[in-house]
Amino acid sequence: MSVEPLTSLDRSTLRERALDALRAAIISGQYRPGDHLGEVELAGRLGVSRGTVREALRHLQQEGLVTAGARGMLRVRSHSASEIKELFQVRAALEALAVRLLIASPERDAPVAALRDAVSRLDETPLDFIAHVDADMAFHLLLCELSGNSMLVTAWLQLAGRIRVTIMAMGDEQATLMSGSYHAPIVDAIEAGDVAQAVEVLQAHMDRAAERLSTPAGRR
């Protein structure tokens, strides 16, 4: 029995590794909104062909992390104030659904305990800005995962990269919105089984974040 060569698999794996590396560089803030992403430079840094980089960048365009500017030059996407508000409107709708599903569940003790643990990580010290962002994103992802709705989680993850890039672009000015005390009221309302209060607190959380992230530094 002959064995087919694995050339295609190797090429695919290389493309995925390049994609993962570029995505990580963008969402970590190594490349910031507006930064040019040149194929030649990136290919040299990654040790892959320009074609592999081109495929990865095309995928990142589909994810909304990269956009084509003048003359087709690719850059890390900068979100306008209206786009940021729209992004957080959709995020709020998804997480509000997660809250409703969690409260509707007959057993909330374990999910509430898990959320409390995630909240505690927001106030761990020493905690640098990137660790703060990681802990904040982890809390909100957990909220969605605990809802038990896999489609909700998939939809949230499709927004996660753009959310993180938007937060990273602001820097540690956003840290006050990532404290444990700012998230605890969401968990309190879930534990109490108060849907209206939980959704209201969550909506206020998202509205404030969107306002901060979409307002120029000089006007905050």
Describe the structure.
The protein is mainly α and 220 residues long. The protein folds into 2 domains: 7-76, Winged helix-like DNA-binding domain superfamily/Winged helix DNA-binding domain (Arc Repressor Mutant, subunit A), CATH 1.10.10; 81-219, Four Helix Bundle (Hemerythrin (Met), subunit A), CATH 1.20.120.530. It is 69% helix and 3% strand. Strands 1-2 form a two-stranded antiparallel ribbon. β1 (66-68) and β2 (74-76) form a beta hairpin. α4 crosses α6 and α5 runs antiparallel to α6 (129-145). The radius of gyration is 20 Å and the shape is elongated. The relative contact order is 0.13.
Q: What are the salient characteristics of this protein?
A:
mainly alpha; Arc Repressor Mutant, subunit A; two-stranded antiparallel ribbon; 2 strands; 3% strand; disordered N terminus
Task: Describe the structure concisely.
The chain has 220 residues and is an all-alpha fold. The chain is 69% helix and 3% strand.
The tally of strands reads 2
The CATH architecture of the largest domain: Up-down Bundle
Helix count from the secondary structure assignment: 9
The CATH homologous superfamily of the largest domain is termed GntR ligand-binding domain-like
Average residue pLDDT: 87
Structural class by sheet pairing and helices: mainly alpha
How do the helices and strands line up, and which of them pair or pack?
Blueprint: H1 7-27, H2 39-46, H3 50-63, E1 66-68, E2 74-76, H4 81-104, H5 109-121, H6 129-145, H7 150-170, H8 180-192, H9 195-214
Helix pairs in contact: 1-3, 2-3, 4-6, 4-7, 4-9, 5-6, 5-8, 6-7, 8-9
